Amino acid sequence: MKNQSIINIVTQMEAGGAQKAAIQVCEELIKRGFISEVWFLYKKRPTYTDRPYVRWLWEEKPKTFGEFLGLLVKLYQWLRVINPDGVITYTHYANIIGQTIAYAAGVPHRLATQRSPCWSYPPVARWIDRLIGSIGIYTSNIFVSKSVESSFQTHPNTYLRRSKVVFNGLKPPIITYTKSESRKLLNLPNDRCIVISIGRLAYEKNHALLINTMSRLPSSQYYLAIAGDGELRDELHQLIQTTQCADRICLLGELPPQRIGELLTAGDIFALPSRYEAFGFANVEAMMAGLPIVVSDLAVNREIIGDAGIFLPIDNVDEWEKTFRYLAQDEQIRRELGKRARERAALYTLEHMVDGYICNLLQYQ
Fold first, then answer.
1. Using CA atoms, how far apart are residues 70 and 66, in angstroms rounded to an integer?
2. Which single residue of 90, 194, 300, 323 has CA 20 to 30 Å from 133?
3. What is the pLDDT of residue 363?
């Protein structure tokens, strides 16, 4: 029997959780003997252009209906030529576009993954996902957490009976350097408590709260490093200037995936005050690195992190300031929280995730 082929489809190329999931699933599938690639519908940033198994259909986001139609035709043609045994899609637009075109191209096994609560989808996308997931365009459907699953509970039974929860998993970050070496490589101060945050610079990640919190802390003792890029970069940069925090906050931009371990090693505390999450890849990577975790008090964060983190209101700067001061002054507490975080992170392995995807995609028993 020929090696089975599986194509992973993601909307845009950039450093995000869905993109990381697709890349790591693809690598694990190849390791297991599958023929696999990752296809991005378009390239937003060149994060993964050096990977031999990565392709992209469009150089940038389609700007006209004609370009969008051309992208759909190209995707159909690629699928017809490759004729894969299965397709896995990541992000809601990839689900809608990739699954529909895969169905039209005759791909027999089609797995969609729901990586955000359904209420966070644009209304039209939410409606289309509900429709095509109910009529069988998806042969199977994955929720990445129980919290995501609960947001879909009003969907029809024809949608839900094809759906299961498979927790995200990922490879541990690569740790190569010591703390002081990592700080030097990233041009971070070596004499302060460094708070690390990783995430797209977007509304839902709520980085403004961290900036406002740092504005209350002495620059001689604290420093904030945020890795990520996105539509709010200029706005956050302006907030840093307005709050006079340029001496204690650095926007690092989008780091290559292989350097995330370097950043985590440089940090003393990991913080992410998200307004909502589906799973939280960045949180789990920080847990794997043994950092104390401070996150917003969301149901999904409590589900994934358990007793290995500190949960705070997303709009209470006083609580975040108090917590940073508390952790910065007590190294023993940081170590204990970091130990708990590392132990909890062992639940979220890439191998278990890929087992679940293969089982649901190819209907293995």
1. 6
2. 300
3. 77
Q: For residue 158, what are its two tokens?
A: 């024809």
CB 230 within 8 A of CB 45: no
What is the per-residue pLDDT across 215-234, written as a single tens digit (0 to 9) for each?
Answer: 999 999 999 999 999 999 99
Instruction: Choose which CATH entry (1.10.600.10, 3.40.50.2000, 3.10.20.340, 3.90.1170.30) describes domain 179-345.
Output: 3.40.50.2000
Report strand pairing: 193-198 vs 293-296.
unpaired
State whether the Cα torsion 257-259-261-264 is positive or negative: negative
Residue 270 has pLDDT above 80, yes or no: yes
Buried b (16+ CB within 10 A) or exposed e, 291-305: bbbbbbebebbebbb
How many H-runs (helices) and E-runs (strands) does the chain carry?
15, 13
* 151-210 residue pLDDT tens: 999 999 999 999 999 999 988 988 999 999 999 999 999 999 999 999 999 999 999 999
Rounded distance, CA 249 to CA 236, Å?
A: 11
Beta bridge partners of 8: 38, 88
- Considering the domain 5-169+349-362 in this protein, what is its CATH number? 3.40.50.2000
Mean per-residue pLDDT for 346-358? 95
Q: Where are the domains of the chain?
A: 5-169+349-362, 179-345
Query: Looking at per-residue confidence, does 364 or 192 come out higher?
Result: 192
Q: Rounded to whole angstroms, what are the CA distances from 136 to 90, 225, 277?
A: 17, 45, 27
For residue 81, give the H/E element and its range.
Answer: helix 65-82
**Under DSSP, is residue 298 helix (H, G, I), strand (E, B) or coil?**
coil
Within 83-232, residue ranges assigned H as helices are 92-104, 123-134, 146-151, 157-160, 179-185, 207-214
In one-letter notation, the amino acid at residue 59 is E
For residue 109, what are the β-bridge partners? 86
Distance between CA atoms of 114 and 90, rounded to whole angstroms? 7
Q: What is the DSSP string of 32-54?
A: TT-EEEEEEEEESS-TTTT-TTE
Q: What is the pLDDT of residue 365?
A: 39
